[in-house]
Amino acid sequence: MPNIKVFSGSSHPDLAQKIVDRLGIDLGKVVTKKFSNMETCVEIGESVRGEDVYIVQSGSGEINDNLMELLIMINACKIASASRVTAVIPCFPYARQDKKDKSRAPITAKLVANILSVSGADHIITMDLHASQIQGFFDIPVDNLFAEPAVLKWIKENIPDWKTSIVVSPDAGGAKRVTSIADRLNVEFALIHKERKKANEVASMVLVGDVKDRTAILVDDMADTCGTICHAAEKLIEAGAIKVYAILTHGIFSGPAISRINNACLEAVVVTNTIPQERHMQDCPKIQCIDVSMMLAEAVRRTHNGESVSYLFSNVPY
């Protein structure tokens, strides 16, 4: 592929490598290091003049360092005369701070959108934004890919009785995502209504729908401390579900998440590799991983060739 360069930040080099392998090109040379005062330094090791540049950096691990590194890389390419710079951000940082839910709350997702634009990004490719309205925080094109086609494929291949299962959303916010999956599988769906006292802590839960004697599939866009997911699984087992699977796009798994999953009544917790999962999978045998690198690679290829990306919203590229 002529005139295309793909660079990787330090958050998820493994995913970037899978993307370039799929595209049949080499990863661009870049050195990222920190000075002794912890300032980030980035050196792009090859010419990007007139090139179509893609920078892969996920919002995981040291989020603020990774975000800053991405901004510096975008800017370095921009002022080195790259014709277009696209940020490939599989897991968008600060996506949960997207509205003023109480007085004096910041809308950090909008701030991140602004700083990405100011640093020189011309295009954003991301996956399963926490709220799709975040696309409207940008004045540049944003491609919000869905993990849904890959999730449907996993369900059909790995859950033997999926035809009689029920898809469950652990909160009202994810209802749209769940109804879409239930429609595509032609199964019923249920909803859990939850009330939060404060962030990362769930107060009470009410199940709406009938899960008795069925396999329940919990679907959400991200799991952080896993309080909601484990609480929901408990609720479903109480309500008579035979087995409970959890399928989440972004497995952040911070704080007590891993021990909660190990102690919860979940068959499997399925996540995608938008965030590195090797360590989590070693610590918890229940965690399984769906590879979405081919979807991101295909989005990069289509964007580079000026083709439509909408095929990826309902199909997994082979």
Describe this structure in words.
This protein has 318 residues and is of the alpha/beta class. It folds into two domains: 2-144, 3-Layer(aba) Sandwich (Rossmann fold), CATH 3.40.50.2020; 146-289, 3-Layer(aba) Sandwich (Rossmann fold), CATH 3.40.50.2020. It has helices spanning 13-23, 63-78, 108-119, 148-158, 175-185, 227-238, 257-263, 278-283, 293-305, and strands at 4-8, 30-34, 40-44, 52-56, 84-89, 123-127, 142-145, 166-169, 188-198, 201-208, 215-223, 243-251, 268-272, 287-290. The strands form three sheets. Strands 10-9-8-11-12-13-14 form a seven-stranded mixed β-sheet. A five-stranded parallel β-sheet has the order 1-4-5-6-7, sandwiched between helices. Helix 6 (227-238) links the parallel strand 11 (215-223) and strand 12. Helix 1 packs across helix 9 (293-305). The longest helix is centred in the first third of the chain and has 16 residues, at 63-78. The mean pLDDT is 94.
CATH class of the largest domain: Alpha Beta
Overall average residue pLDDT: 94
End-to-end C-alpha gap: 19 Å
Q: Regions with pLDDT < 50 over 5+ consecutive residues?
A: none
Order of helices and strands: EHEEEHEHEEHEHEEEHEHEHEH
Largest sheet: 7 strands, mixed
Number of strands: 14
Named at the architecture level, the CATH assignment of the largest domain is: 3-Layer(aba) Sandwich
Under CATH, the topology of the largest domain can be stated as Rossmann fold
Task: Please list the strands of the largest sheet in the order they lie side by side.
Answer: 10-9-8-11-12-13-14
Q: Percentage of helical residues?
A: 25-40%
Rounded to the nearest angstrom, the radius of gyration is 20 Å
The figure for the number of domains is 2
Class computed from helices, strands and strand pairing = alpha/beta
* Beta-strand residue percentage: 25-35%
Helical segment count: 9
| Outline | globular
